[in-house]
């Protein structure tokens, strides 16, 4: 089994600002990452790809002025939809064609009970699904030879306001994409928990 996609992916601390990321490659990364799983296959997410100097400046001020925001060719704002389980999601229409009207109606009701019964569950819905997309994006980038760095030390509310998120949308994280600055050495990979440490068998 070839696990290099997992072992070679690193969170890059600094990017080579002189290297651009072709938009077609960005599109290929996003399309590949879109295979990530989601609850009921609802895909309750979207991405704001910040690539302009003006956009990066706005994001920079709301991401604790982290230099990588400006160094990376693109910064992806991962947006989760707290209301994405609702009947307005177009994914339910596809389910109707597969499971019929009644089957879809049952699933819509189940999703509402599971994810919409409290604000905490709505946030969990947006965060957990958005997190699945985020990790998929970083592995997809690695598959295309593109480096990444996820960021959660940011002003979530400030970014939501600055980039005009809709009611019910939620900033999950920001991911910088580009090519690492090879003049700066990567820190050695820190030890990870193994099965014995991580797993409780019951």
Task: Provide a descriptive summary of the structure in words.
This protein is α+β, with helices and mostly antiparallel strands and about 200 residues long. It has a single domain (about 25-185), classed as NADH Oxidase, CATH 3.40.109. It contains eight helices and four strands, in the order ααβααβααβαβα. The protein has helices spanning about 5-10, 25-35, 55-60, 65-70, 90-115, 120-145, 155-160, 195-200; strands at about 45-50, 75-80, 145-150, 170-180. Strands 1-2-4-3 form a four-stranded antiparallel β-sheet, sandwiched between helices. The protein is globular. It starts with a helix and ends with a helix.
How far apart the termini lie comes to 28 Å
Instruction: Fill in the CATH topology.
Output: NADH Oxidase
Helix content: 40-55%
Q: Helical element count?
A: 8
Q: Which blocks of ≥5 consecutive residues have pLDDT under 50?
A: none
Radius of gyration, in angstroms, nearest whole number = 19 Å
Indicate the structural class.
alpha+beta
Whole-number mean pLDDT: 95
Q: CATH homologous superfamily, by name?
A: NADH Oxidase
Report the sheet with the most strands, covering strand number, pairing sense and barrel closure: 4 strands, antiparallel
So what's the overall shape?
globular
Q: How are the strands of the biggest sheet laid out side by side?
A: 1-2-4-3
* Number of DSSP-assigned strands: 4
CATH architecture label: 3-Layer(aba) Sandwich
Instruction: Give the oligomer, counting copies of the same chain as homo and different chains as hetero.
Output: single chain
Give the C-level CATH assignment.
Answer: Alpha Beta
Strand content: 5-15%
- Number of domain modules: 1
